[in-house]
């Protein structure tokens, strides 16, 4: 089966969001603290606390600059995610319409090629013509399913669970059995009796218990005995003491790292969509993909008419 060959055009994978926000970056790409900058730079700030003579933002506290970097990275990631999702929808819709509108034409072309080759072989009796006819008949196969065109990322109903899980951070492991084991049920009951939100004495404690029980329920639903034991040990250890909680700067750094990981996942999805068969076809008409379907249909109809005329000649 022959499909139009994709040619390079101006359409590119959605541009990755920049994380440069104007804050000073160290060798690892993180915003610098005053302590990590050269000694002379730190003294200059001390002697000029109001930031006189400095560019906007240089006189701000390191934590404020870091918060600004996080906000900029979040906005850039949102725009990138919008671009990826927009392209994913186009690819999926094009795939469905391509399969629906053009599939019968591709199948008809393959059938006509086989009939022509068989007619030629029957007339000539040549073994080589017979071999070619057999090969042409073998090519008369159904149109590839949608999932075959997307390297396992999606089918006609949308993204596969594994692909969705990459974007939602949710597990896709199926439960091991309908009813969890006796030990799993025992652990679950123990955890619920200890951590039930109704046992909370104040609103903050209730929120902590609600979040914890949500994790317990998810582990129980999967029959994950090991995780339930870990949760039991975590509850026995009690809440994290206030002094051990991450500082605002550490939380901001963690947020930046999460944003970077999220961007990497989206980049993988975007690249696979671009490199899929349908993504390559979309590159032929980035501005009007609907018109591309019509043009391909016209080409296929002309090819069908040519093959039918050739078949009539060889069987006359």
Task: Describe the structure in your own words.
- The chain has helices at residues 39-47, 62-124, 127-138, 161-168, 182-195, 203-221, 225-237, 248-275, 277-282, 289-315; strands at residues 154-155, 158-159.
- The chain is mainly α.
- The chain folds into three domains: 19-60, no CATH class; 78-170 and 251-315, no CATH class; 182-242, no CATH class.
- A two-stranded antiparallel sheet has the order 1-2.
- Helix 5 runs antiparallel to helix 6.
- The longest helix has 63 residues, at 62-124.
- The radius of gyration is 31 Å and the shape is elongated.
- The protein starts with 38 loop residues before the first helix and ends with a helix.
